[in-house]
Amino acid sequence: MRLDVIVAHYDLVIIGTGSGNSLLDSRFAGWRVAVVERGVFGGTCLNVGCIPTKMFVHAADLASVPAAAARLGVDETLDGVRWPAIRDRIFGRIDPIADSGRKYRMAHPDNANVDVYLGAARFVGERRLEITPNDGSPAETVTADRIVLAAGGRAVVPEIEGIHDVGFHTSDTVMRLDELPRRLVILGSGFVAAEFAHVFSAFGVEVTVVARSGALLRGEDRDISLRFTQLAQQCWDVRLDRKAVLAERAGDGVRLHLEGPDGAETVEGDLLLVAVGRTPNADLLAVEEGGIAVAPTGHVMVDEFQRTSADGVWALGDISSPWELKHVANHEARIVQHNLLNPGRLRAADHRFVPHAVFTAPQIASVGLTEQDAERGDARWVAATEAYSGVAYGWAMEDTTGFAKILADPATGQILGGHIIGPQAPTLLQPIIQAMSFGLDARSMARGQYWIHPGLPEVVENALLNLPLDPVD
Ligand SMILES: Cc1cc2nc3c(=O)[nH]c(=O)nc-3n(C[C@H](O)[C@H](O)[C@H](O)COP(=O)(O)OP(=O)(O)OC[C@H]3O[C@@H](n4cnc5c(N)ncnc54)[C@H](O)[C@@H]3O)c2cc1C
Ligand SMILES: NC(=O)c1ccc[n+]([C@@H]2O[C@H](COP(=O)([O-])OP(=O)(O)OC[C@H]3O[C@@H](n4cnc5c(N)ncnc54)[C@H](O)[C@@H]3O)[C@@H](O)[C@H]2O)c1
């Protein structure tokens, strides 16, 4: 046991103000609470994740309109992209929200029972934390009956010789650039790579994507990943099956040395964006000192109630979740909130049908089993697709590449998975998520309701009707 001076004991300490900040409401008014935040209030989604990226994506979608409109006989020109104006509008909206969130917690009478520590917390014992303030003042030790770990994760930087010398960006910094680069090299082929490749190329930047794997977004259903990779290759310089072995400066820019199927090669850009995944912050919190078990992936281990292995310690969001998605972090925050307030009536988190969307071009959305998942299982399944070009609104759009794919149990019609690539994919997928969540089978979903004609959701209706389900009497 360390003999630090304990400055305070709390009923509850929350580490991290992303989804962790949403736990507190008037029901906690009688609790003595501390909130610890080492960075900007509001966490990843608000400040450097979902929200600003999608604000850039929307602007990128608008910049892409003239190219798409010409095919329909509408001639428009893109006169320019005012990057500083786009950037400043986005952060001019976001930064004050983060700022007012911090002020609300620190100073509003609603939070009279809450102490805010602006600093980094780490475990020094069971439910015992050392907090190192951001302002350089001496560390303080606090203890608590309950602790919620909501400290998220951080971008991974791969071990490539020279990478720290050349300078690189991650999603944390690339949205605040002073000016657009002429050429951008993106290392990685997941969500972040796909979204920023779209944003920067729509703004006129020459984009090179370096993928370790043989396809982009290879976690998607393989038909979706294949279609997206083919489309990406038409827009960006896509290098598949490449290993980056060395980074060096090239003039004012950067050169990456790659090894691939055809041997050694190099790619150059004015900027390098590293987008090779994220890792949970459990290590920085020294959670093992608090008796908290960690999985081989680095995630804090939790049970179905979001309890860690240490008494009184809960976890939510990216620090413990393999999904690393805001709607999952929010759901888990609601579960932890309920369980803190109702220790005798614990509620389990529901991770049965976790959807996701990639806001690239075209958009992609997915829920449930992919075809490759289904092949690995023992259960019977069937799959069917419908192209956007097979429904009236898809004709209107002259879409030739989008499709919806649905997997189902052929006997019961239970929907096992849904995957869509094309305009408005996340919006089109939502009824499939709803059907899976509430047990609506494919037959009932297809024919038990009207589908607005000629709406784009007809692509989902037709994919359902195309499923080769077992005949029913
Ligand atoms: C570029 C990008 C785009 C994304 N887009 C989407 C999207 O479109 N849709 C989606 O669902 N998800 C998206 N995500 C993922 C989403 O942002 C995360 O899943 C979500 O923000 C996780 O929330 P959280 O509360 O677990 O962690 P965070 O929001 O990361 O909050 C953790 C907080 O803890 C603080 N902290 C960390 N360590 C300590 C410490 N030792 N002491 C004190 N404080 C600490 C951090 O400063 C941070 O503020 C995106 C992520 C990125 C990076
Ligand atoms: N729209 C969204 O919901 C959204 C958007 C952005 C980020 N996110 C979340 O943030 C997380 C992080 O995103 P991400 O794109 O950084 O990670 P990711 O896990 O989606 O993709 C990382 C990719 O980098 C590749 N990779 C790993 N090491 C590499 C190396 N050394 N060289 C080249 N490639 C390498 C991997 O094979 C993988 O394809 C995602 O898992 C996602 O949950 C969500």
UniProtKB/TrEMBL annotation:
The keyword Calcium does not apply. Keywords: Disulfide bond, FAD, Flavoprotein, NAD, NADP, Nucleotide-binding, Oxidoreductase, Redox-active center. Signal peptide: none annotated. Disulfide bonds join C45-C50. NAD(+) binds at G188, S189, G190, F191, V192, A193, A194, E195, G277. PROSITE patterns: PYRIDINE_REDOX_1 (PS00076). GO terms for molecular function: nucleotide binding; oxidoreductase activity, acting on a sulfur group of donors, NAD(P) as acceptor. Binds 1 FAD per subunit. The active site is at H453 (proton acceptor). Belongs to the class-I pyridine nucleotide-disulfide oxidoreductase family. This is Mycothione reductase. It comes from Actinokineospora iranica. The lineage of its organism: Bacteria, Bacillati, Actinomycetota, Actinomycetes, Pseudonocardiales.
